[in-house]
Amino acid sequence: MRFVGIDPSTKTGFVALDEYGQILRVKELMGIGDKDPVRMITLIDEVMRHVGKDDLIVIEGFGFASQQAIQSGGIGWGIRMALTRRGMKYVEVAPNALKKFVNVTGWKGEAGDKQRLQGAEKKNAVMDSVKEHFGFVHSSDNVVDAYVLAQIAKSIKNKSVNYQYQKEVIETILTPPKTKKKGRK
After folding, report:
1. CA nearest to 120, candidates 134, 150, 140, 93
2. How buried is 12 (Cβ within 10 angstroms: 0-12 exposed, 13-18 middle, 19+ buried)?
């Protein structure tokens, strides 16, 4: 069994770990050319060439504040549809859960004087925290996110983590909170 993390974007991060957490494959996938939809199609095809039928796949959920929301959404849905077409299951992890797994809150400063991390600052905080937690370093934030997702896949299977915040992420994935259904008044 491999543990696979996929961070779908115009530059899609892909990481596969073996059952011991050793890196088998690390790639940033981009598709062919710069004209859509050909680039998007070839990117999705490229992702599918890297996944296997026995992989435990974790894919990052959709971000709501993305600058490239339409393209990323198309790529993300395309990957999900291709996996489904092949009968492959996947687990979706919210962007904030990915950050929480490596103890990044998205904020800096002390109580009463907190400021939200933005853009590159947020990406760098995740990259620094991944280096601290796992010793993994890569120049692409997409690959770093995919690495965290692969580690989440491993933790889901092994049901073991090192920190309480990681345990909370895994518990939420395995037993999502029930949402209230809106009823008629």
Report:
1. 140
2. buried
**Alpha carbon 43 to its chain's center:** 16
* Pair 66, 60: CB distance under 8 Å: no
Q: How far apart are CA 115 and CA 108, in angstroms?
A: 5
Six-digit token string for 12: 């899609």
Ramachandran assignment for 112, one of left (phi > 0), alpha (psi -120 to 50 degrees), beta (any other): left
Encode the chain (185 residues) as per-residue pLDDT tens digits. Answer: 999 999 999 999 999 999 999 999 999 999 999 999 999 999 999 999 999 999 999 999 987 655 556 677 889 999 999 999 999 999 999 999 999 999 998 888 888 888 988 889 999 999 999 999 999 999 999 999 999 999 999 999 998 999 999 999 999 999 988 876 665 55
**Domains by residue range for the chain, with CATH:** 3-107+116-174 (3.30.420.10)
Residue 28 CB-density burial (10 A; 0-12 exposed, 13-18 middle, 19+ buried):
middle
Helix 38-50, helix 69-85: angle, nearest 10:
40
Angle between helix 141-158 and 164-174 (nearest 10): 80
